[in-house]
Amino acid sequence: MMYYCGICTVIIQLISLIEASVITFPFYQEEHNRNLVKTVDMTVGGNFDDGYYVSVNIGTPPQKVSLLIDTGSSNLGIAASAALHVRSYFQLNKSETFHLEGKSLKVSYLQGQWEGMLGSDLISIPGSPSITTHCNIACILSSNKIFSKDSDWQGLLGLAYPVLAKPDSSVTPYFDALVAEEKVKNIFSIILCEKPQHTNGKQSQGKLVLGGVQDYLHTGEILYTRIHKEWFYEVILTNMSIGSKYWASSCTELNNDKTIIDTGTSALYLPQKVFSWVKQSLQKSNVLQNQLTEEFWEATEDVCIQKGRSVSEYFHKIVMSFDETMNSRVSLVVPPELYLLKSPKTMPGIDCYKLGISSSQAGTVIGAIILKGFYIIFDRENRRIGFANSTCTDTVAAVIQTMNLHLDPSVCAYNSKEKSELTLLFITYIILAVFLSCTIPMLMMLAQWTWHYIIRK
Ligand SMILES: *[C@@H]1O[C@H](CO)[C@@H](O)[C@H](O)[C@H]1NC(C)=O
Ligand SMILES: *[C@@H]1O[C@H](CO)[C@@H](O)[C@H](O)[C@H]1NC(C)=O
Ligand SMILES: *[C@@H]1O[C@H](CO)[C@@H](O)[C@H](O)[C@H]1NC(C)=O
């Protein structure tokens, strides 16, 4: 049976190869694609605790800097002065090609902030000289809670859309500059590896692929969801299930006030209501009840289990379903091995874990803790985000096709402003109507009264 199907697959692949070559051949004649580098694979360094980064060369002569991969912002920011926790920094007065533009800027995050000056310089990728581009750089001159003791990076590579760029959207982000110069196609993909502890834990072998998708980074199909709005990578959650329970309230609550895919955030953040539901639904039995304190849910205390046992014996998987696009419906199966973080402290006979899920005021943020289980495709060209099973993970995280979605997924979008404006408008109309219906009879009565008592007299 297996062999039989194996042969079928080979034949099908052969046929599709022949078809593909026949169909794609004419496109090779397109002139403007001639210098297009197909894809550039950049090695991702770092780890979950300290952030994932890539290295670039900046300036002339080149200085090597490492940049945190951040799909939740849009500036390329580089430490340009000595600071706490910054081991090396970009020495802009040593670069012949650096231009200072004089504008100052300040960027604040949920945690931390930085201030600096806007400039520009040449950026190239080690090993891919053809992909050098002139790009805006935010030179970080002072910062607070951005760089940490163990982080091995000196800046941020903001990969989101220009509208989020500071001080305004006239600052072209790095990836947009590459695409505008036709260096790569308008698509990139990320795999943040989660290497098993025994292969020397701290290093990961992730990739940031500029310009496309690499087949060696995933198994099975890529399933897509629509990008709802192009600022952050905003998507729409349509359903969530944990064990036998599923989110039965309005699906707009899942996206209150937005849902974004953000490699620059570590945890999974959920709107308060959704977080409370997750809290009630996550445990499989009452075995760990006395350990699941408020402190555990606030991620300040660990839960400990017998060494050698699996967290999935005690906790459920979380299944997150997304809005469909072009008949593709995707759900992410997030196992407890992904959302619980193994604590570094060792104690005889037990393993301890911290929760990687938090409650948030700023919507759902699907951070690195979830993303490191998958291969993610930021297909900006077709305005969609793809997820595929990763070739670089030890957990049972899985991308699956969503079944039986009965509703129109767009009803799940959270649109606070438009809704309240609509309600206000509606209220205004009602008041006007009430006013008119009261005043017309009153005016008529007044007219009658005037006629009777003043004019007739
Ligand atoms: C560059 O500026 C720093 C201070 O910002 C200074 O210490 C250093 O000597 C300068 N280097 C050059 C080559 O001018
Ligand atoms: C991903 O892997 C899971 C488990 O191995 C499998 O059931 C699922 O079909 C795979 N997903 C895709 C899209 O191939
Ligand atoms: C959400 O998922 C559950 C379990 O898979 C399913 O029973 C339910 O119908 C889904 N809800 C919607 C609105 O699709």
TrEMBL record:
Primary residence: membrane
Subcellular location: Membrane
Alphabetically ordered keywords of this record: Aspartyl protease, Hydrolase, Membrane, Protease, Signal, Transmembrane, Transmembrane helix, Zymogen
Signal peptide (residue range): 1-20
Transmembrane segments: 422-447
Peptidase A1 domain: residues covered: 52-388
SUPFAM superfamilies: Acid proteases
One family name in Pfam for this protein: Asp
UniProt superkingdom: Eukaryota
Family from the record: Belongs to the peptidase A1 family.
Protein name, UniProt field: Beta-secretase 1-like isoform X1
Taxonomic lineage of the native organism: Eukaryota, Metazoa, Ecdysozoa, Arthropoda, Chelicerata
Gene name of the encoded protein: LOC106458042
